[in-house]
Fold this protein.
Amino acid sequence: MMNARKDIQVQARRLYRACLRDDSLNEPAAHRVSSVLLEKKPRGYLEILKVFTELVRRHVEGSTATISSAVELTDDERARVVEKLNARYGRSLDYRWTVDPRLLAGIIVRMGDEVTDCSVRMRLKSLFSPRSKF
């Protein structure tokens, strides 16, 4: 017999997979799952909900690219960034665009735990780092 923690993990993953459509999260389905769990209160529902919510959070973070730039990007610049990131990850992503005036120029892309820093500040920093061959 499966231990209780393993059973909760299995149930939460099953519910999470039921909310996916072609690797995209069906948000209304995820909300329904949460609502039904809170309404019906099956055994271990709080733990199941906690694991389910974590799986959804990871999915959203892993599918959302946050792009920070020194100034507002034009539509053409945004389209080029979207094209390159979709090609890099092999799928369509959700995008959040922010302006960070602390950047001199360039962009920083954050997706989940991954950060790609293409800013002038980072390039200057690497140019003058002790490991630089300058």
Observations:
- The helical segments are 4-18, 27-40, 45-63, 75-89, 120-127.
- The radius of gyration is 20 Å.
- The longest strand covers residues 64-69.
- The mean pLDDT is 86.
